[in-house]
Every structure is written in structure tokens, then in C-alpha cells.
From TrEMBL:
Belongs to the UPF0065 (bug) family. Keywords: Signal. PANTHER family: BLR1237 PROTEIN, TRICARBOXYLATE-BINDING PROTEIN. It comes from the Bacteria. Pfam families: TctC. This is Tripartite tricarboxylate transporter substrate binding protein BugD. Residues 1-26 form the signal peptide. InterPro entries: BUG, Bug_dom1.
Length: 328
């Protein structure tokens, strides 16, 4: 082969090498353990969903998916960690509705809360419950509202920081009853629930994935579910409409993310594994016990997830701006 032709071939090979590395790496994906970051404390509702999803995805992918908790600042600490991680599919984020509120609530973040991520798929939407310490002096939502109005800021409302679902639910409750309470932030609602169980805080609004078992065991008082219909997992708990607060409705969606720049072939592979995981009988039955169901398969895709997330950012923006409540 003439020397110029060989040089041209070598140059061409050098040029195409990085291009080839992408698809090849994606084909071999995953070749090692994947880390799924939960931006809240272990044992809480987001963590519970993540551990079930991670286990089922791991079975499908043939690799372990390890859950790591990085709680604090309403979920933004864990989200930052994933936005800044290497975009190779080995570091993922399982987050909730906070991904739709943080872009407006937090005006100064050390990461891009929208463009820092690739979407993998939606996971589930979880109803919320308003619960109180066992000896709270009320038994119905109407009685609880009367106590809240009477005791006002003497009552402590626990949450997982600004932008967390428990924070939004508390804001909605306070708006519905036109009364402010003192809020106490935790790194997640698992520690908040511990404080409620020991009676050091008074009230908490949290996903059924963190409250169903304590409600059934009679360890906390429950006043309402924040959904239009009663839940099969908690059939005796009235809806907020039945309890006289029809505007007090909220459900918490969860989604799976990868850092921006993760190859599309990798996010597609992760999305397929997520879709399989969400049909896993063990996951489905545990979700049902905890008052929730996985999303339909077509919503567990990067496109459906991104569309839903963008719409939810647009939905929350004017609400947060009108309230003028920012985290910084
Ligand atoms: N449920 C929490 C929240 O308030 C978060 C968590 O601990 O999973 O958003």
C-alpha cells in the first residue's frame, strides 16, 4: 500500500476511534455495578421506591444496582452529585416532584437543574397522607384543622427541606386552612417519621410509601389521603374532599435520571430495564401494599418522562412565583 494511502487510513482510523467507542461501550453496558443516588435519607419513601426498582433493574441488567443516599437541601445535594457525575450510565438519580420545583425554588444552584440531566423514564405516582403523632388531639381532618387554627405556630410540621414533597404538601395544607405552622426540616422523611413516632414533632404529610405501615400499626394518627378517591391499601382513610378540604390534593411522581451527555443507547437500555422492573411481580405487589402502582410502560421512557417533567416545571413556576417563597 502506498505510504500516503496508509497514512490516510491511519488518520481515518484515529478519527473514527472515539466515535466507535460510544456505541461499543453502550453495547457492553452495563459492565459493572451501577449506583442509584437517592437524594433523601435511607428508609424514606423515595428510598423505598428506589430500592425496589434498583433490585428489579439489577436482575434485568445482570449487574448490581446499589442505592446510595445523599440527602439534604430538599434533594438538591443528591441531584448535584448526579449532574456532575461522569455521563456513562453508571451513576443515576431516582428523584421525585422536587425535580419540577427546584428549578424555580432554588435560584442559585451549583448545577443545572434542567439541562444537567438525561431522562430515563417515569417510575410511579404516589399519593400522600396527612399524619400526626399518636396523641395529637384530633381524630378527623376537620378536628385537625380546628387544632391547627387554634394552636398555629405552636405546632411543628416536619418536612424534608424546601422543594421536598412534604414541604409542598405542607404549604398546600397551610394555604387550604389559611394558617402557618412552624416547619422543621430533615434530610428526608424517614428521620421526620422517627421524630413523629417519638412525639417530638406534631404533623407530617408524606407519601404512602412511608406512612402506610405506621398507619396500619396504629403508630400514627391519619387524617386524610390527598387523592380524589380512597386507596385500596388504606380503605378506611377518608379523602381530603370527604374531610372538607377539596383543594388539598397532591401526588408525588418519581423519575429516573442520568447525567447530561449519557449516550442515548445507554439511556435506552436503562429505560428498557426500568420497564421490565416495573412489571416485576415482587415490585408490583410491594408497591400495592404501599398504596401505589408503577406507571404504564409507555411512560417509563426518556421522551415521556422529559415531556411530563417539563410540563410540571411549567405548572409549578407560577405557583412558586406567586407565593414568592424561594429557598435562597
Ligand atoms: N418524602 C420526602 C419528601 O418530602 C422525601 C423522602 O424522604 O423520600 O419529599
Amino acid at each position: 500500500m502506498p505510504r500516503f494511502a496508509r497514512r490516510a487510513l491511519l488518520a481515518l482510523a484515529a478519527l473514527s476511534a472515539p466515535l466507535a467507542a460510544g456505541p461499543a461501550a453502550a453495547q457492553q453496558f452495563p459492565g459493572r455495578t451501577i449506583t442509584m443516588i437517592v437524594p433523601f435519607a435511607a428508609g424514606g419513601p423515595t428510598d423505598t421506591v428506589a430500592r425496589l426498582v434498583a433490585e428489579a433493574m439489577g436482575r434485568e441488567l445482570g449487574q448490581t444496582v446499589v442505592v446510595e443516599n445523599a440527602g439534604g437541601a430538599g434533594g438538591t445535594i443528591g441531584a448535584q452529585r448526579v449532574a456532575n457525575a461522569r455521563p456513562d450510565g453508571y451513576t443515576l438519580l431516582l428523584h421525585h416532584i422536587g425535580m419540577a420545583t427546584a428549578p424555580t425554588l432554588y435560584r442559585r444552584l451549583a448545577y443545572d437543574p434542567v439541562n444537567g440531566f438525561e431522562t430515563v423514564g417515569l417510575v410511579t405516582e404516589v399519593p400522600m397522607t396527612l399524619v400526626a403523632r399518636k396523641d395529637f388531639p384530633a381524630n378527623t381532618l376537620q378536628e385537625a384543622v380546628a387544632v391547627i387554627r387554634r394552636e398555629k405556630d405552636k405546632l411543628n410540621y416536619a418536612n424534608a427541606g424546601i422543594g421536598a414533597a412534604s414541604h409542598l404538601c405542607g404549604l398546600l395544607l397551610m394555604k387550604s386552612v389559611d394558617t402557618a405552622m412552624t416547619t422543621v426540616p430533615f434530610r428526608g422523611t424517614a428521620p421526620a417519621m422517627q421524630e413523629l413516632l417519638s412525639g417530638r414533632v406534631d404533623l407530617l404529610c408524606d407519601q404512602t410509601t412511608n406512612t402506610t405501615e405506621q398507619i396500619k400499626a396504629g403508630e400514627v394518627k391519619v387524617f386524610t389521603v390527598t387523592t380524589p378517591e380512597r386507596l385500596a391499601a388504606l380503605p378506611d382513610v377518608p379523602t381530603s374532599t370527604e374531610g372538607g378540604l377539596p383543594d388539598f390534593q397532591v401526588s408525588v411522581w418519581h423519575g429516573l435520571y442520568a447525567p447530561k451527555g449519557t449516550p442515548a443507547a445507554v439511556t435506552q437500555r436503562l429505560s428498557q430495564a426500568l420497564q421490565v422492573a416495573l412489571r416485576d411481580p415482587r415490585l408490583v405487589s410491594r408497591f400495592a401494599e404501599l398504596g401505589t402502582t408503577p406507571v404504564a410502560q409507555e411512560r417509563a421512557t426518556p421522551e415521556a418522562h422529559r415531556q411530563f417533567w417539563m410540563a410540571d416545571i411549567a405548572k409549578w413556576k407560577p405557583i412558586i412565583q406567586a407565593a414568592g417563597q424561594y429557598a435562597d
